[in-house]
From TrEMBL:
Subcellular location, principal: membrane
Signal peptide start and end residues: none
UniProt cross-references to SUPFAM superfamilies, sorted A to Z: Mechanosensitive channel protein MscS (YggB), C-terminal domain, Mechanosensitive channel protein MscS (YggB), transmembrane region, Sm-like ribonucleoproteins
Domain Mechanosensitive ion channel MscS C-terminal: from-to ranges: 617-702
UniProt key word Cell membrane: yes
Name this polypeptide is given: Mechanosensitive ion channel family protein
Annotated ranges, domain Mechanosensitive ion channel transmembrane helices 2/3: 508-544
Length: 726
């Protein structure tokens, strides 16, 4: 009985799978998923299914059909199991086989080798049918020559006219090292206008002339179109590369201008020729297989030349991307690091794109698919780079003009922000157009499954742009408040306080922007704020030394005890103040060593840079020189220094002889001093010592040296005579 029940259960399940009532029950072959809820079966539907099963079993014919279906199902399952077993044994080999089967779907089920073998054979047959006889060849050559001559004469005349106009109005004939927008426009007109106008005039003229050989006329128009495409492509590439010119990039730009024209022209020539050969009129003229084969060959040649160009000129283009001035590298370290990374890897994605285009062209069998789209994307990229470069040049010119006007600082920074938005718009449009080339779009993504993602991205981008705008306004207000209006530049006090205030304001703005962004994304920021408060309280108790540094540094900065550029002595360290943070001060000593000193360890500050300085001299007088002679020598050297046009602006008073300060080893020590400009006392002291030594050497005098008294006894106490040696 158990076997009968088991058999009936299997028949029941199988019947449910093959009868129309399967929709009421879950399909057991599909399995179950934790994320999908199976449909609920009512008792009425179950009764209907049982009635259908009973009718099937009562009918002998239907029962036999069910048995046949079950056997077929068993055989198909056996075949599937054997296939799975073979796949497990073959492993990677099976995966490659399935991949080639998938790739050969667009090749009418053929492998790429067989497909292109058949196409080349058919193209050869079409070429044999097209091969003209000797009499027809002369007609073909005549038609070809007439079109080429007309095109060449028109182009030469236009080039001559442009040259004459440039010479008459003294316009630049070539791009300079730092070309302006006007020079770019003239260069584009000179390189593009003659060939474009000549091609369209030739195209119109060819339709008017009597047709003797359509094949010769078609080949001539193909060549003129390809030459025009090569010229346009090379000119646009040269313009985009020249936009990256600068003081540190002229060598790389000179190399590209001297060596890159022919490769760029060849790339544009073969790509344009491949594009023209896929035109329906050319296909009707040459034949489908011949024209598409030649189109594929030219596209592949253009892709290979592009890869060769990237490998050959990788370093000059990397120099154009990476080389920047020292001021740029110092002020924009993060941006320069990104440019260095981009210059090191820029060729990798380009080579990957070229390789993918080659593979897709060969495997798809369509010469205008992948490579054509890739070249169109490259053209769009060049246009985007040209527009970005022109915007950058306009922004630089505006910045140079606005530097002279302190009141235009708001206008300068807001205009720069506007140029940034314009650059962003250019690249968004480029990305959308590039996606449209590949049958996609940003807007289609937003309207489909990526609606929520698009909303999140737009929200984050708007928050970032708003934060940037607020920071520009706040930073400009801080700069104007600390530097004032009408000054030549910020004071040392402003340079000291400005980084601290800017960093504090930046932290506050970033925290607020982060909270707003998280709130716009739907997150509950209340627990985050509470947690931040608790963490801040814990840090305050645990980092008391840090709090001490902050408070001490705040009082030192507010009281203006030291500033950037001052030469100070803070106890254990002495040097020039190079940077001040909210917690530490950086000093560079006379040996070039930088000392980072926390504010909490500073007890006293000796500042040598405030208001004025004193160059103090302590001069030991020789025993053989009189005091008056020594004073005269000191005054003579001092007067000579005050008459020096270079030193007199740093010496603020006559020499002040303060008298004999002390006696050292029997020699009198004369003390004198100059009042000097701040931080100039050390230089004045060294100069005075040098000139005094030269004066003494010139007059045969000497500085005081230590003296020693020696008493010699000759053995008789009554005849002792003292003797002195120096």
């Amino acid at each position: 009985m158990k076997k009968i029940y088991k058999l009936l259960f299997i028949i029941f399940i199988s019947h449910l799978l093959i009868t129309p009532s399967y929709a009421a029950l879950p399909n057991l072959l599909k399995g179950s998923s934790s994320t999908e809820q199976e449909p609920k079966v009512s008792n009425t539907e179950l009764v209907q299914s049982l009635d259908a099963l009973i009718k099937t079993l009562e009918n002998n014919r239907q029962r036999q059909d069910l048995l046949v279906n079950l056997k077929d199902l068993r055989e198909s399952l056996k075949v599937a199991a054997e296939k799975d077993k073979k796949d497990e044994e073959n492993g990677v080999l099976t995966d490659f086989t399935e991949l080639f089967d998938f790739l050969s779907h667009d090749l009418n089920g053929q492998t790429p080798i067989n497909f292109w073998k058949d196409r080349v054979q058919l193209a050869y047959l079409e070429l044999q049918l097209l091969a003209p006889s000797l009499s027809e060849f002369s007609t073909l050559l005549y038609s070809f020559s007439i079109i080429i001559i007309i095109w060449y004469l028109i182009a030469r005349v236009l080039l001559w006219l442009i040259r004459r106009i440039n010479l008459h109005y003294k316009l630049p004939l070539s791009l300079s090292n730092s070309p302006t927008t006007w020079e770019f426009l003239l260069y584009a007109l000179e390189k593009l206008l003659p060939w474009v106008v000549a091609f369209f005039i030739t195209l119109y003229t060819s339709n008017i002339l009597p047709t003797t050989s359509p094949l010769g006329k078609g080949i001539a128009l193909l060549m003129t179109y390809a030459i025009m495409g090569g010229g346009i492509f090379s000119a646009l590439c040269f313009i985009s590369l020249s936009l990256l010119s600068g003081d540190h990039r002229w060598g790389a730009l000179r190399t590209l201008r001297r060596r890159a024209f022919r490769p760029l022209f060849s790339i544009g020539f073969f790509a344009s020729l491949g594009d023209a050969l896929s035109n329906y009129k050319i296909i009707g003229l040459l034949g489908g297989n011949l024209s598409l084969t030649l189109s594929t060959f030219n596209n592949l040649t253009a892709a290979l030349l592009a890869g060769w160009f990237v490998i050959t000129f990788r370093r000059p283009i990397a120099h154009l991307i990476r080389n920047r001035s020292f001021a740029y590298r110092k002020k924009r370290k993060s941006s320069y690091d990104f440019l260095r990374f981009l210059s090191a890897v820029w060729h990798i994605p380009v080579l990957m794109l070229v390789t993918a285009s080659l593979i897709a062209t060969i495997l798809s069998g369509d010469p205008t698919s992948a490579l054509h789209r890739a070249l169109l994307c490259a053209a769009l990229l060049i246009v985007a780079l040209v527009l970005t470069g022109l915007i950058q040049k306009q922004s630089t010119k505006l910045q140079q003009r606005a530097k002279r006007n302190h009141n235009g600082l708001y206008f300068l920074r807001l205009t720069r922000f506007g140029y940034t938005l314009l650059n962003l718009a250019v690249w968004v449009i480029f990305i959308d157009l590039a996606l449209r080339v590949w049958n996609s779009s940003i807007f289609l993504f937003e309207q489909g499954a990526g609606h929520n993602i698009t909303i999140i991205v737009i929200t984050v981008m708007l928050t970032i742009l708003t934060t940037r705008l607020v920071w520009i306004l706040v930073d400009t207000a801080i700069y104007r408040a600390l530097t004032g209006v009408g000054r030549n530049g910020p004071s040392t006090r402003a340079l000291t306080m400005m980084p601290l205030i800017r960093n504090t304001a930046l932290c506050i703005i970033l925290v607020i922007a982060t909270i707003v962004a998280l709130a716009n994304l739907g997150m509950n920021v209340t627990p985050l704020l509470a947690g931040a408060g608790v963490i801040g309280l814990a840090i305050g108790f645990g980092a008391q030394s840090l709090v001490s540094d902050l408070i001490t540094g705040l009082f030192i900065i507010v009281e203006d005890s030291l500033a950037i550029g001052d030469y100070v002595d803070v106890g254990d360290h002495k040097g020039t103040v190079e940077a001040i943070t909210i917690r530490t001060v950086s000093l560079r000593d006379i040996d070039g060593i930088v000392h980072i000193v926390p504010f909490s360890v500073i007890k006293t500050v000796k500042n040598y840079s405030r208001e004025l300085g004193f160059a103090i001299f302590r001069i030991p007088i020789a025993h053989s020189m009189g005091i008056d002679d020594a004073v005269k020598a000191v005054r003579s050297v001092a007067n000579e220094m005050r008459l020096d046009p270079i030193l007199q602006r740093d010496i603020w008073s006559p020499i002040e002889i303060q008298g004999v300060e002390s006696f050292d080893s029997g020699n009198a020590v004369l003390r004198a001093r100059f009042k000097t400009a701040p931080l100039k006392q050390f230089e004045i002291s060294r100069t005075f010592n040098l000139r005094l030594k030269r004066y003494l050497d010139k007059n045969g005098l000497d500085l005081g040296v230590p003296r020693r008294s020696v008493t010699v006894h000759n053995g008789t106490p009554d005849t002792q005579e003292p003797s002195t040696q120096s």
